[in-house]
Amino acid sequence: MTLRRKPLFNVQAFLDSEGVARKSIEFERGAVIYTQGDVCDTVMYIRSGGVKLSVLSKTGREAVVAMLRPGDFFGEGCLAGQPVRMGSATTVTASTIVFVKKRSMVQLLHKQSALSDRFISHMLARNIRIEEDLVDQLFNSSEKRLARSLLLLARYGNHEKSIREVPPISQETLADMVGTTRSRVNFFMKKFERLGFITYRDGLKVNDSLLTVILHD
Q1: Which helix (H) or strand (E) holds 149?
Q2: Looking at residue 85, what is its pLDDT?
Q3: What is the CA radius of gyration of the chain?
Q4: What pLDDT, on a 0 to 100 scale, did the predictor assign at position 179?
Q5: What's the Cα-to-Cα distance from 42 to each of 21, 54, 86, 124, 183, rounded to whole Å?
Q6: Are 89 and 43 a contacting pair, CB within 8 Å?
Q7: Residues of the chain whose pLDDT is less than 70?
Q8: Which of 63, 142, 169, 177 is least surrounded, with the fewest CB atoms within 10 Å of its CB?
Q9: pLDDT, tens digit, for every residue of 88-131?
Q10: In what order do the strands lie in the sheet with 205-207?
Q11: Which segments within 57-130 are labelled E, that is strand?
């Protein structure tokens, strides 16, 4: 007897359906979606494009905490009672973002179990990623942290291609993600390119062989 695989829940189609209270806004590259300290009352979903989540310290230093792609939620802190945004969200490319007010999102999660399951999976994956990032920052060199960031941006392990394209991203942003300087990022990127781990033909592309940098002691 062959078991039929349950089709994945289409979040975008559901949010686009009638009866769902939401607002869709198109942003240009580099646009600010919200700023650290803004009122936190909306959950957002990336329909297309990409979003950078960052935090600014009191001394003015920025740290990139996540790079998000289509299909990702963000701003979900409001569901846990967060009164203001703990960081900022900026587009890294032209993007379309769906906004759902806190009250509407809570109602949807209660009524639509498939959406609730998808959202919980998203939250668990984000928590695992945060823990991995913390370990990475504590124990790995800046070279290994950069290699890991590039592989994550290229969605390593999500499909079978050995070479995958990375969304447009500056070396300054990579430096913020890794916790080092732009000059160090530039040095390592040139090294990775020389070794064939990355290529700049038709945009930045990452080869699976970059994984050897992380595995090498």
Answers
A1: helix 142-153
A2: 94
A3: 19
A4: 83
A5: 12, 17, 13, 20, 37
A6: no
A7: 1-8, 18-19, 157-162, 217
A8: 63
A9: 999 988 999 999 999 999 988 888 888 888 888 888 888 887 78
A10: 163-165, 205-207, 198-199
A11: 62-68, 73-74, 88-101
Choose which CATH entry (3.40.50.2000, 3.40.50.880, 2.60.120.10, 2.60.40.2890) describes domain 11-136: 2.60.120.10
The answer to whether 49 and 94 have CB atoms below 8 angstroms apart is yes
Distance CA(140)–CA(151), nearest Å, equals 15
CB-based burial label for 128 (10 Å; 0-12, 13-18, 19+)? exposed
Q: What does the alpha-carbon distance between residue 77 and residue 96 come to, in Å, rounded to a whole number? A: 20
Residue 100: which of 194, 12, 169 has the closest Cα? 12
CATH class of 140-215: mainly alpha
Strands 62-68, 88-101: pairing is unpaired
Q: d(Cα 209, Cα 163) in Å, to the nearest integer?
A: 9
Task: Give strand pairing partners of 67.
Answer: 52
- The domain ranges of the chain are 11-136, 140-215
Q: Which two tokens stand for residue 95?
A: 């993007």
* The one-letter amino acid at 193: E
User: Using an 8 Å Cβ cutoff, are 88 and 31 in contact?
Assistant: no
Residue 136 CA to residue 205 CA, distance in Å, equals 22
